[in-house]
């Protein structure tokens, strides 16, 4: 909460109740929700907040680095209130996105230096698989 107040003040942005609500919701969940999911989750408490407002709030929060935008393919964006770099894994069956905790791939930035002229600043690691709820069904249907 202090974080968002300070950052918005620094950037001279208006800290609206909607922006706070979107941020607090993302901080409170590990689900990596889409804009639609955020909209639905906040609709009960903020019945006048439109989907467009949610999109705008997310865009602003991403711009000031309080929220990370994940492109999970097909123009499908998910939002993460955890901005420290961490790898993700997505279920190819239901689309659920999970954090992978306790491992860092920062050393990768160093190891690829010999393969590029670029100055390497960061990387994004994405794994794909089957979540606990989906793997039995998937393996059954695909004969694994
Ligand atoms: Zn799944
Ligand atoms: Zn995450």
UniProtKB/TrEMBL annotation:
User: Which CDD domains does the entry mention?
Assistant: Fur_like (cd07153)
Q: How is the cofactor bound?
A: Binds 1 zinc ion per subunit.
Which key words are in the record?
DNA-binding, Metal-binding, Repressor, Transcription, Transcription regulation, Zinc
Q: Which SUPFAM superfamilies match?
A: Winged helix' DNA-binding domain
Q: Supply one GO BP term.
A: negative regulation of DNA-templated transcription
What is an example of a GO molecular function annotated in this UniProt entry? zinc ion binding
Q: Where does Zn(2+) bind?
A: 91, 94, 131, 134
Entry-linked InterPro entries = FUR (IPR002481), Fur_C (IPR043135), WH-like_DNA-bd_sf (IPR036388), WH_DNA-bd_sf (IPR036390)
Q: Which cofactor does it need?
A: Zn(2+)
Is Transcription among this UniProt entry's keywords? yes
The reply on keyword Transcription regulation is: yes
User: One short Pfam family name for this protein?
Assistant: FUR
Instruction: Return the similarity comment.
Output: Belongs to the Fur family.
- What protein name is recorded for this chain? Transcriptional regulator PerR
